[in-house]
Prior knowledge:
six-stranded mixed beta sheet, eight-stranded mixed beta sheet, alpha/beta
Amino acid sequence: MTAQTPRPGSRSLLIAGGGLASLALALALKQAHGPALAVTVIDPHAADPARHRGRAYALAAGGRRMLAQLGLWERIAVAAEPIAEMVISDSRIGDPVRPVFLTFGREAEDQADRGVGEPFAHMVEAEPLATALAEASREAGVEILGAGVVRAVPEGAAIRAELTTGATLKADLLVAADGARSRLREAARIGWVGWSYPQVGIVATIGHARPHNGRAFEHFLPAGPFAILPLRDGGSLGHRSSIVWTEREDEADALLSGEPDEVLAEIERRFTLDLGTLALEYGPSRHPLAFGIARAFRAERLALLGDSAHVIHPIAGQGLNLGLADAAALAEAVTGALRLGLDPGSPDVLREYERARRFDSFAMAAATDGLNRLFSNDALPLRLARDLGLGIVDRLPGLKRFFIGEAAASRGTRPRLMRGEAL
């Protein structure tokens, strides 16, 4: 095997995993430090942005500010749809009426702390976002390798990564962003607290005849939430939405094993009637759902990022936003060290990153777990309690603004990039 090390006087960072948060971290660091920091992303699927096809994310205002600061928003804005209003209802599938208990409307645009009105979130399709991140990273000088990391061994002032190609790379810091079943996390003996839900997430792109006008719906059904999220116009019927459908695991196979028209009929039973005729544009695909958080976000010369550090239920649509916040916080910690001439992989830098992210990640994971347990059932006392709670939030503007601020990532101590500020 050959060992590659950066030239004397420069620093280096390796990222194992080429997901959206990984590429955002690589781009942020390379833009901030140029040739003084060698950044390499290692992912066996790095050259295949189509792996993201059919997925879409609710990008909170903090994440949008981060992408704008990185010069990416202008590239993907044409593929992004602002969420103008969120409508939340609680019912059973067969109920003739779905009472609305909570709405987040135009008042969400007043939550920007810089005094500039902006939607609290945009729906962004994953494939164009991944393509834009990869292109901008390469243009900035990030090296993207189509390989995997077999093993990582700390060696004092560096960490050595052995790749599936047989090559060996050395760096000051290795970022483990290799997913919820991270081999690097396990090899570093970082504990994991988590469990699987008896649910699956079903994702599809739906065409519809009537415009959505930027309105998102979240129907809480006994098996779990059924979210309808607005996408940019297009498709066979002129308008499109993404659905994120949570269903009991023991029923999902039967619901999805039929012909496309049978699957569409199941979707129509859960869909709002306001959008007219429906068509299945892409999917559905199913994904296991789980809760998980690492007992530590760091080890010797190793930092966990994204799903390697935390996995949450999609009920609040915050998975991508948590990963981007990780990337922003780690970029800030590494940048602070480099500008002082310090080692970016030192324990002090990694402790700073962990302090910035672990509590926030745990709080969001616990909140989504609690919401899922509260809403994914049909017990009458719980239904009455949650509907009362939603109604109270809807009628108290101050409380509603608090929840909007949380959804928009506009509260608490946030990394500079998520405030729209340069590193």
